[in-house]
User: Which sequence fits this backbone?
């Protein structure tokens, strides 16, 4: 077996995020958490966040990005609305519009258009030469893999109810052994990029919920092995794979940090570890980015609240 690696670096990247704020001509303040101090910008495969604040109470706010609904949370007084955003690994770079519809208590409606820039992101590439029998699945296995993927995708929807609270957390403390987005070219044929991160975890190690949510699926697949899919509401899901034992059932509600499974090496795994993935509004995103941005969102909201108290709102 010949292995030729041109660019593959296994490391836990430090994620640098920036805050960009501006005020519209009608007094609406917009703050973006992403990768630029001068624009609302998100890289392919990364998460971002947006905060929209008003001087008066708003009855309802809804949004749409990439033709998909964006579900906003709000502070109790109805003056601050916020949402997590995500750009898929293969989302075409360019400028898009986050379309916002605002409904005031009077019933008056207003539309707002916020430019979102999607930036190209280069991910590591690994070139491998392997025997054909190690690469191509027999027909019955290939059909099983397709069925597994369809089963998981069928449970991923954008529901208006939101369960997540505050920042997301790592499900296990282990180091990253395989990064998000790494692409493999095997025998000159491109394969699907790595849609999560692999975290070091021994057999039987406790796996914790990255945030509060509902168990959308407990399943055993050919590649992913024993798997738990959590629905955090608003189109945000996290995935936990290669488990030795799930400890939750379909439809069960869980709290952030609650033990939901034990890690293992089930499915097609070279050894014990946890594959940890995330989807945000149907976009495959780096779960480490989701953790970083959600924590920064939590900190930014605290600043807003402190500012509102100081100004007497």
Assistant:
């Amino acid at each position: 077996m010949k292995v030729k690696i041109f660019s593959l670096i296994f490391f836990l990247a430090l994620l640098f995020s920036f805050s960009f704020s501006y005020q519209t001509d009608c007094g609406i303040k917009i703050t973006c958490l992403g990768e630029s101090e001068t624009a609302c910008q998100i890289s392919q495969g990364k998460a971002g966040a947006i905060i929209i604040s008003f001087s008066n109470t708003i009855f309802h706010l809804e949004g749409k990005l990439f033709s998909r609904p964006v579900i906003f949370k709000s502070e109790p007084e109805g003056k601050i609305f916020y949402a997590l955003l995500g750009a898929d690994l293969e989302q075409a770079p360019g400028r898009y519009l986050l379309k916002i519809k605002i409904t005031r208590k009077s019933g008056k409606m207003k539309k707002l258009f916020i430019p979102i820039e999607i930036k190209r992101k280069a991910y590591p590439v690994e070139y491998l030469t392997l025997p054909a029998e190690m690469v191509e699945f027999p027909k019955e296995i290939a059909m099983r893999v397709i069925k597994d993927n369809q089963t998981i995708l069928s449970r991923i929807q954008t529901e208006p109810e939101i369960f997540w609270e505050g920042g997301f957390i790592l499900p296990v403390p282990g180091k990253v052994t395989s990064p998000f987005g790494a692409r493999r070219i095997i025998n000159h044929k491109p394969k699907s990029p790595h849609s999560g991160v692999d975290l070091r975890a021994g057999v039987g190690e406790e796996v914790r919920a990255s945030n509060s949510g509902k168990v959308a699926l407990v399943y055993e697949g050919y590649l992913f092995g024993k798997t738990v899919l959590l629905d955090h509401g608003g189109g945000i899901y996290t995935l936990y794979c290669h488990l030795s034992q799930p400890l939750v059932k379909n439809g069960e509600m869980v709290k952030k940090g609650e033990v939901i499974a034990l890690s293992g090496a089930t499915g097609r795994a070279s050894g014990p570890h946890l594959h940890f993935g995330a989807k945000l509004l149907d976009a495959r995103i780096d779960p480490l980015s989701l953790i970083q941005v959600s924590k920064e969102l939590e900190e930014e909201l605290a600043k807003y609240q402190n500012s509102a108290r100081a100004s007497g709102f």
Observations:
- Confidence is low (pLDDT under 50) at residues 1-16.
